[in-house]
From TrEMBL:
Bulb-type lectin domain mapped to chain residues: 30-150
Residue ranges that the Swiss-Prot or TrEMBL entry lists as coiled coil: none
Domain Apple intervals: 343-433
GO cellular component, one term: membrane
Organism for this UniProt entry: Triticum aestivum (Wheat)
Membrane-topology descriptor: Single-pass type I membrane protein
The protein's name: Receptor-like serine/threonine-protein kinase
Ranges for domain Protein kinase: 519-790
Amino acid sequence: MEVTRDHLGLTLPLFLFLLLSPGALVTGVSDLLNEGNNITDGNTLVSADGSFILGFFSPGVSTNRYLVIWFSVSNTTVCWVANRERPVNSTAGVLVFSDTGNLLLLDGSGQTVWTSNSTTRAAPGVAQLLESGNLVIREQAGHTTVWQSFDYLSDTLLPGMKMGKNRWTGSEWYLSSWRSADDPSPAYRFVTEANGLPDNTLWDGSTKVYRTGPWNGLRFSGTTEDATYTDMFKFVVTINDGEVTFGYTATPGTPPSRIVATSTGFVKRLVWEESRKRWETFLQGPRDVCDAYAMCGPFGLCNANAPSTSFCSCPRGFTPAFPAEWDLRENSGGCRRSAALDCAQGNEGASTSSTDGFMVLQGVKLPDTFNASVDASTTVEECRARCFANCSCLAYAPADIKVGAVAGCIIWTGNITDLRYVDGGQALYMRLPKSELVIIFHTYMSRGNCLVLYYISYGQSLSDATDPAASRRDPASTVGSVPAADPSTMIEATEEFSQAGICVPAVDLPSIKAATDDFSDSNIIGKGGFGVVYKARLNGDIVAVKRLRPSGRTEKGKNDFTREVKVMSRVTHINLVKLVSYCQEEDEWILVYEYMPNKSLSPYIFGENSSPRPSLTWFQRLEIIRGIAIGVEYLHNKEVIHRDLKLPNILLDHELKPKIADFGTAKLFIDDQTNPTLVQTPGYIAPEYAREGNLTLKCDVYSFGVVLLEIVSGKKITSAKTFLLDAWRYWNKGKIKALLDSQVAEPNHQLSLDLSRVIQIGLLCVQPMPNDRPTMPEVVVMLTDSSSWLARPKKHEVGPGQATGYPQTSNYSLAHCLCLEQR
Ligand SMILES: *[C@@H]1O[C@H](CO)[C@@H](O)[C@H](O)[C@H]1NC(C)=O
Ligand SMILES: *[C@@H]1O[C@H](CO)[C@@H](O)[C@H](O)[C@H]1NC(C)=O
Ligand SMILES: *[C@@H]1O[C@H](CO)[C@@H](O)[C@H](O)[C@H]1NC(C)=O
Ligand SMILES: *[C@@H]1O[C@H](CO)[C@@H](O)[C@H](O)[C@H]1NC(C)=O
Ligand SMILES: *[C@@H]1O[C@H](CO)[C@@H](O)[C@H](O)[C@H]1NC(C)=O
Ligand SMILES: *[C@@H]1O[C@H](CO)[C@@H](O)[C@H](O)[C@H]1NC(C)=O
Ligand SMILES: *[C@@H]1O[C@H](CO)[C@@H](O)[C@H](O)[C@H]1NC(C)=O
Ligand SMILES: *[C@@H]1O[C@H](CO)[C@@H](O)[C@H](O)[C@H]1NC(C)=O
Ligand SMILES: *[C@@H]1O[C@H](CO)[C@@H](O)[C@H](O)[C@H]1NC(C)=O
Ligand SMILES: *[C@@H]1O[C@H](CO)[C@@H](O)[C@H](O)[C@H]1NC(C)=O
């Protein structure tokens, strides 16, 4: 690049410059400054492509002169300042070469106010402003660079720069903000923390004020908006014995961009918007009250969406350390354990016996890892075992959530600091004593003949359970990106707890009868092989009451019912229809679900005429697909195989968020062999399940793939025997349009790319061999991270009877299928 620079001759900005400043002809008229020449105030260097300019500048209202590099698109946007702390007070400043080949900035009196400090001499040397915005000193003849401005960061990180630490020499590169708009001397520091996992941290003097959260292999744990621009910028995070650094590169063609630490104590990622001639903010931190470092003190948990000012709470098993202050919103004292851990300690904290368990906090920005120990080479299972076996371990989490990564292990032994809920956050596993885990299992004595089961609250505290708003808590989406993770606390029980039924409250039959007008036909909203569904009002809430058919009420059915209630109450997620209650009295077996006003997805996808079909945009469709994937992933995490994923089983809430329904229920109750097709919906079943009854999580992946392709195409899988083969063929030829529902407005270019990618994911899911299909967690990452790598789906054959995903017949006995596989 450097070689050709001289031949480029007059670039446009340079040409203009010559016209406007004829006096400048002698010096500074290119991107090069040779030894012996100088740059005086009013003259500039311009990078070969015209994007960066080096010259003298006065910030804001100041009359001081600084030698700076600015963006040519915006002559007030300075990205580098040489003499930050020693301004020149007149226009007599001049940039010259010293006898040692360094650049010197001299003021009017000939005093050096700034120098490049290279100890190596390039002879003869030349200074050049590169197209990246980097000012380098190199040999005139060769390519050896002896000094570069990219090693001396100001407040701005450009693509190609990096910040972090050299572990050998201890030297550090960090951003430091200007003191004010008029004064470029350094104030806030933005540092890539090298202890624990890399974490970009903003400091005001010696006080930490904000963290982006640790690097998790995909992004920084607390800044999930990163996922929305992975097509423009790629993170470059290096962690090895020699260095811990962070930087980024921009995809060619991306407009000018920068990360800047501002004089007001923010870190922003800005991208130039040419049509409006301004910088658009892609990310800003701290973004809300919970981003203030250690807002809720040690072990405190911050929720930015909590009502009014009560952002801080204590995780389960903890109470405020100073309740009086806490009540007055003075939360810095944090939380302390309600009961001590039970861990008998041998040498160095090795536990000889422990009855402790782990509670998982979903959807959080991982706490400060400064004092945590990180091991990138272990699995999560090993991590858990390691934490359990060491009494000093208070919490653990995987270190790398990238698909295909070993996961790794972060172990916290000290205070858990700066913990908050965040949209699209991660899981943190906190150690709790058995007694605290047991409190969660409030014994619930049911009335009538209803089973004695247990009750669990899903909010942050027990009182939350009665507050319907708590279960709907859904951190405000930042950049309509990653669908919100359900931030509810959930229990991950240790072995002994998995025996205990975690359950929902029972309700008595008279209440159900009253709610449904004694099962009045006028309240029926659905019918199926399992029984009838009624709309009802129970305790003021509108619910769906599912009354099971008498033929299902056998001894085996009773076991299934009990297990079903347990399974259903164990799974609670924003993308699953929630079981609210149940009743088993007299001869009635009844399940009560939350009511979904917008019913099933089917009419939105397949509807004819005046249906809502055309109004469901591509964007909404993609969001729905992601929501379904996240719901199924959650089920799989809980060892539940849905087995009957299909469009009619996807319901929509008032915000058109998808909720998976009917998991387990229908299947478990249909014990009669006369109507097996009820459970085996043609087209949706994985071929190996239809053929040989091989039931694995991959069966759901297959059905999910079919659902995905249906949502995109608006066609039923059963509409053509060659549905999947056609999809594969069109996709393979790049004829995406032929695959898209023509009733929906044609997607723009970016959406077409997204849709093509989503179709590819769908095709991967419906591959004939289960082992070829991705797992649901992999599918979720593929759908959320548009930069993740996708394999080529294998071709679909249309053979006799199978492989279209459309089996002919099968009489596999469904009674063998359990929805719950114990670990
Ligand atoms: C800068 O260059 C001009 C023209 O070559 C020369 O007259 C002047 O003395 C130089 N200034 C310094 C400070 O070297
Ligand atoms: C920046 O550009 C604008 C518009 O081209 C011009 O009016 C202004 O004087 C320039 N400012 C500086 C400091 O060069
Ligand atoms: C500029 O600075 C020089 C020395 O640094 C000083 O002698 C001179 O008085 C200053 N001029 C003004 C206008 O402040
Ligand atoms: C050059 O070295 C001096 C003395 O070691 C130091 O004060 C100054 O900050 C250095 N300048 C740069 C640009 O590194
Ligand atoms: C327990 O964990 C701490 C902190 O990681 C470590 O220093 C100690 O060696 C561990 N003890 C054992 C027995 O592994
Ligand atoms: C790390 O440990 C030191 C020493 O115990 C403590 O002062 C510091 O606050 C800890 N930092 C964090 C982030 O927990
Ligand atoms: C943990 O927090 C408590 C309460 O703020 C403090 O007294 C203690 O020093 C902290 N421990 C560490 C290791 O930072
Ligand atoms: C979804 O249901 C709500 C409440 O019944 C209704 O107001 C809304 O129009 C429905 N949305 C669509 C897209 O049908
Ligand atoms: C189904 O299971 C049987 C027995 O475990 C196995 O031999 C067969 O390969 C499996 N089929 C598929 C398609 O995985
Ligand atoms: C149905 O079951 C019978 C008896 O178990 C078996 O012979 C037959 O092959 C099965 N049919 C199919 C399509 O699997």
